[in-house]
Amino acid sequence: MKYNCIRNSDSPEVMRARVKHGIAAYGIYVALMQLLEEDEDHKLSKDYSMIAYEMRVDVSVVQSVVEDFDLFEVEEEYFYSKELSDTIEQARKVSEARARAGRAGGAAKARNFVANAKESSSKCQANASESLANATNSLANASESLANAKQMPESKESSPNPSKNIYSVPTEREDNIKLSSPSSARTRKSKPKEFTICHKGRQIFEKYYQELYDSAYYWQPKDAKAMNSILKKISFARSHKTVPLPIDDESLLKALEEFLRRIDKTWIMNNFSVNKIDSQYNEIVSEMKNHRQNVTDNGNNTKTGWKAPDHKDTSAYRSGFGVAVGK
Hints:
The protein has 327 residues and is an all-alpha fold. It is built from 15 helices and three strands. It has helices at residues 12-21, 24-38, 48-55, 59-67, 82-151, 172-179, 182-186, 197-213, 221-239, 249-262, 266-269, 274-279, 281-293, 314-318, 321-325; strands spanning 44-45, 73-74, 78-80. Strand 2 (73-74) and strand 3 form a beta hairpin. The relative contact order is 0.06.
């Protein structure tokens, strides 16, 4: 962190949190302090579910660390760290004081710079005149030396020795260096790349899009942001059920695939894109719930004008995305 205001792991407040939740409590505390520092207002919303999802920890542990051990100041909708806020405010005051002092000293430095520049200019002119005189003398001395050299007989010792071998034999170490070609480094096996959950979600979407339209989906940078948003919304829905469902990567990806296959609104199917699905997520889920209410106990649809997804029986239907995100 830029501001050194994190409490030590053996401070009374942190020790009480560690006694209840183990050393993980200190890690959560440090991570929350970093998030607060990065936030523009240095406050975080009390959306413990999203914070727990980002940290891959239990929601109750995050809420306990925030509210139970006097590590943070908790308001109705937000929480913050008094130590961090005071440290940032003090740093701001010091920065402003230094800026004022810098502006006051800047004018004096400017005046001194002008005076020194004038003095240096005079000295440079004097040095240039002296250097020019020295160069003239050096040129005269060089001309005299050249004239004397032409009058001297040619020395036999200065002739090159044809018997001397000007080529050196490479040493054993040099041979080894030449044998170690760059291609040998490329033959080393690299570790397999681990894909993120967003990348895996992209693969699921592109595969389903290919099935629907027999055409490849043109993935854009904004689609990655929208895919992350969809996965977070699915995770939020699953974790807030009466009996919370798993939110590990594998479970979220299965729920995503089922969710995509259950979208049946004509207007969304004609504009089938990741960004569009993300922006209309709540409306799509509401439509799914309305359709589910029209399904009888044997899995048949009682509402005309709409074709329900094919399921063998009610248990097969309830095992799909409706149970994953519905309440």
